[in-house]
Design brief:
Belongs to the histidine acid phosphatase family. It is a single chain. This protein has two domains: 160 residues, Rossmann fold, CATH 3.40.50; 89 residues, no CATH class. Strands 4, 5, 6 and 7 form a four-stranded antiparallel sheet that branches. The chain has a three-stranded parallel sheet with strand order 2-1-3. It is an alpha/beta fold. The longest helix is centred in the middle third of the chain and has 15 residues. The protein contains eleven helices and seven strands. Helix 9 crosses helix 10.
Length: 281
């Protein structure tokens, strides 16, 4: 396991402040640094310290579509664009039907996300899809996929979303590789979407619970390279991802140039609202 060649002091781990992401990170760390050849949950779990990113006033692993006024302003501009209007028209027809059966007054398409998530989660726990939802289940899935796509549709959106985390990763590569060798971030499907979007690798899909992005740093001769791997679901395994203008192994400097338009500058900042009541763990 990792304990054979990475010391815990060479690790930095961060989770969002939700029980499920903290527990996931805790289990991942135990799996990585288990002393045996096979991780066994029947054995006592080892304690690990890791950072917790707060919900408020945090941009690293955030939800800017509900917490960032500037992101919201740019997103409204996207909704008013030809592409945004086309998306809204595509999914508008079923909104009255969903309101009739859920009582949720849909004023923006983000509200479809928790509706679909609830139905999908219940199904995964063995509960039957409600009769009313069966005719619109595929519609809801498609709508959520396109909502996710819309969150990363513009470089200006990415600078306030996944570009923040990507910028942190690049800083880690530039500054911290002498003291840290492994950086772990435990977050949510939307954060996976954001990071993929910042690298222009996202396509309309809903990342599963085990979705994972790995960004590896390789040294070949005197040249550093970056490789990106993505697992959308544990059943599919990892796939090597190829950025535009890059091979699978992308020279670090070329990687930086490719993602530069998603990296926030000093003027790309966000004033957060204080209402986090929508975030229910």
């Amino acid at each position: 396991m990792y304990s054979k060649y990475i010391d815990e002091v060479e690790l930095k781990a961060v989770s969002t402040d939700f029980n499920r992401t903290k527990d996931s990170l805790y289990l991942v760390l135990n799996g990585l640094f288990d002393d045996g050849d096979n991780f066994d949950l029947s054995h006592p779990l080892k304690h690990f310290n890791f950072e917790v990113a707060p919900i408020k006033n945090n941009t690293l692993l955030s939800f800017p579509m509900v917490l960032c006024p500037r992101y919201q302003e740019i997103y409204k501009q996207y909704e008013a664009s030809e592409e945004g209007i086309k998306m809204l028209k595509k999914y508008a027809a079923n909104i009255p039907y969903i309101y009739e059966h859920t009582g949720v007054n849909i004023t923006n398409f983000f509200q479809l996300v928790p509706i679909f998530d609830t139905i999908k989660s219940n199904e995964e726990w063995g509960m039957e899809i409600p009769t009313w939802a069966k005719p619109v289940y595929q519609y809801l899935m498609s709508a959520v996929e396109n909502v996710y796509m819309s969150t990363v549709a513009l470089p200006r959106l990415n600078k306030l979303f996944g570009g923040v985390l990507l910028n942190e990763i690049l800083r880690n590569i530039d500054k911290d590789t002498e003291t840290k060798r492994l950086f772990l971030y435990s977050a949510h499907d939307l954060n996976v979407v954001g990071l993929l979007g910042a690298m222009e690798l996202y396509w309309p899909h809903i990342p599963h619970y085990t979705a994972c992005i790995i960004i590896e740093l390789h040294q070949i001769g005197h040249i550093p390279y970056v490789k990106v791997l993505y697992q959308a679901d544990y059943s599919t395994g990892f796939k090597e991802m190829k950025l535009s203008q890059c091979d699978v192994l992308c020279p670090l400097e070329q990687f930086k140039k490719t993602v530069d338009r998603s990296i926030p500058g000093h003027k790309d900042n966000c004033n957060y609202t204080q209402d986090t009541s929508f975030l229910v763990d």
